[in-house]
UniProtKB/TrEMBL annotation:
Transmembrane segments: none annotated. It is found in: Secreted. It catalyses: 2 a phenolic donor + H2O2 = 2 a phenolic radical donor + 2 H2O. The record marks 68 as: Transition state stabilizer. This is Peroxidase. The active site is at 72 (proton acceptor). It comes from Triticum aestivum (Wheat).
Length: 321
């Protein structure tokens, strides 16, 4: 009798353990934490912070290009640095038309930060490129005057990058298209709007917005229309936020209120009644924008995270090991 009872309780414990293992492994992809490298590379954040600072001194394009790189990394195949891979066959994400406009300065910022991390003997070959992109994106934001949010770490680098895997939103997408794209990443409309606030930094080539000028898009402010015609006659780009192009702030949302959003996908957030309230909110309260942006970046950073089973710690961010 006693034997049977202990057998039953042993079986119960076994089942409990099995269930726990199954639950834990199904969440393995979400095991990110801020102190992931505390033992192997205690000064990681300081190293990346200083390296990004130097990149930003070298080029005003570094911060915007690095922030955009993080989005394009996470949105395609997850945050696994697949966007960095250069394939000898030419089949890689970067060769897709939607990634071709990623600026070299962003890639260089990551390569330099990786070299700085690996020049520390303790850290060498232990920190993933995906985590360095996430950290460098945060530095690009905070060192431009934006929020200094905590970055979760522990991503592995992917081994695959293909041209056809690239699916990204486009400049003429309406609110429903933008929402459904971000929804596939597990992000809400609020997250999408907050993340669009990244367009407080950087620039876009005239090809992305020129078709809206000359009165073709009624949501564009006429004086902004005239201004852009002049800009594109002079040079091939315009700033996404021409009030403070290198400052991370909420002026992007104030511009939308005045019909001065550069891309169609920016201005539609104000034109559509369903998102206008959030634009007004962020335009009037930078602190709330910074808070929501930090949350949305953290959520974006969890998309499709790889583990030791399907990933690796890449030695050269441009090539799988
Ligand atoms: C909502 C959908 C989005 C669309 C349609 C979009 C589209 C674009 C386009 C067309 C450009 C100009 C590229 C060029 O001419 O070089 C651009 C630039 C930029 N995007 Fe987005 N984007 C979106 C969301 C985001 C998100 C979520 C982020 C980051 C969180 C982001 C960050 C940036 C940055 C920082 C730049 C400036 C890049 C530079 O100056 O090199 N974008 N975006
Ligand atoms: C962000 O916070 C860290 C840690 O407190 C600090 O060392 C760093 O200087 C801050 N960065 C900015 C740009 O304020």
């Amino acid at each position: 009798m006693a034997n049977l009872e202990s057998l039953a309780s042993l079986a119960a414990i076994l089942i409990l353990v099995l269930v726990e293992v199954a639950v834990l492994s199904s969440f393995a992809a979400a095991q990110l934490r801020p102190d992931y490298y505390a033992n192997v590379c205690p000064n990681l954040e300081g190293i990346v912070r200083y390296s990004v600072k130097q990149s930003m001194v070298k080029s005003p394009i570094s911060a915007p290009a690095t922030l955009r790189l993080f989005f394009h990394d996470c949105a395609v195949m997850g945050c696994d640095a697949s966007v960095m891979i250069i394939s000898p066959t030419g089949d890689d994400e970067w060769r897709n038309q939607d990634d071709y406009s990623l600026k070299p300065e962003g890639f260089q910022t990551i390569l330099d930060a990786k070299a700085a991390v690996d020049s520390d003997l303790q850290c060498r070959y232990k920190v993933s490129c995906a985590d360095i992109i996430a950290l460098a994106a945060r530095e690009s934001v905070s060192q431009s005057g934006g929020p200094n949010y905590t970055v979760e770490l522990g991503r592995y680098d992917g081994k695959i990058s293909t041209t056809n895997s690239v699916m990204l939103p486009h400049v003429d997408d309406n609110l429903d298209s933008l929402n459904s794209f971000f929804y596939t990443l597990g992000l809400s409309q609020i997250d999408m709007i907050a993340l669009s606030g990244a367009h407080t930094l950087g620039a876009a080539d005239c090809g992305f917005f020129q078709h809206r000028t000359r009165g073709k898009d009624p949501s564009m402010n006429p004086s902004f229309d005239a201004q852009l015609q002049g800009t594109c006659a002079r040079q091939n780009f315009a700033f996404l936020d021409d009030v403070t192009p290198v400052g991370f702030d909420n002026s992007y949302f104030k511009l939308l209120q005045n019909g001065r959003g550069l891309l169609g996908s920016d201005q539609v957030l104000y034109t559509d009644q369903r998102s206008r309230g959030t634009i007004d909110y962020y335009a009037s309260n930078q602190g709330i924008f910074f808070y929501d942006f930090s949350i949305a970046m953290t959520k974006l950073g969890k998309v499709g995270v790889k583990t030791a089973t399907d990933g690796e710690i890449r030695r050269d961010c441009r090539y799988p090991n």
